[in-house]
Input
Amino acid sequence: NAGNKCTLFAFLDRIGLYAEAEALIAREPSAEDLSKLLHAFLLTVPFENLGQHAHPALGDSVAAVPAAKHIPSLDVHKTLKKVVYDRRGGFCFELNFAFAWLLRSLGYKVRLSISYVITPGGPVPGHLALFVDGLGPQPLHVDPGFGDAPREPMAAVLGSTVTDSMIGDAYSFAPNDDPSAFGQTPEMAKRCGQVLMRSRKSGFGGSVMVDFVGLPETPPPAPEMTPPEPVYLVNFDDDLALDCDEFKAGIAGVLADVEQNPFSQKRMCIMMREEGFDFVGKDYVKEMRQGKEVKREPLKDEAAYREALKQVAGITL
Output
């Protein structure tokens, strides 16, 4: 309808593809256009959790901002307003819901899948991935909402490897055939038959996870590609509804105000760049390029923090 088409044009403008909008809408879905859309989305829409936090005032010059306006939800219409019209970002449920809407509006066949992020304490069911059918012999996995995931579509087939064209990391899928691995429960092992694996070109130091977990300094680049490490458990066959119980539980976990949940404990904003990323933390902003930290600046107060968000990600709270 007219409203959806207006939002579709606005979305393509949001990710820098307005000049190609009519051609993209007119063309049949393709793997090439899927890759174009994924890259454009990653480089324009930040991964951020600012919507679940209240932001303090600074004297009379910086106004306080409550969390109420942009609380993350499973309502795709609220998410589209936030990402497209308010020019904000979000975390996995918001970003992947928005990207799925974009793809479906362009005629792509998209399925939603729960995924369990592997942590030192075991897999956590707080994420989702997307599978796109009909573009080849195998579904294609895409995940612009992870913050540290493949920047390329991946064939959902065991043993297939894809190399990130921007930063050189390598990804593959392996069977989740050991119920005792990763600290998973028997239910998780039964639920998810595959595991996403990653090898880092520049080591852990080149990852956004350095800042996500709060390391005080960026480790130096690794001398060679790291061995494969597990990222998350997934199920190639999933086709879940936007409001399914697993997604409700997942977003509730991400929003839970508990000490072990980094999303609730600190504000963060990650903006992907072609050769790395920029990160705005509580009291610093840094730039990573080709696995190396090339710039870091302290943020002395809330005014400096707000300005960094504007300069790095175009966000005005």
About this structure: The first helix runs from residue 2 to 14.
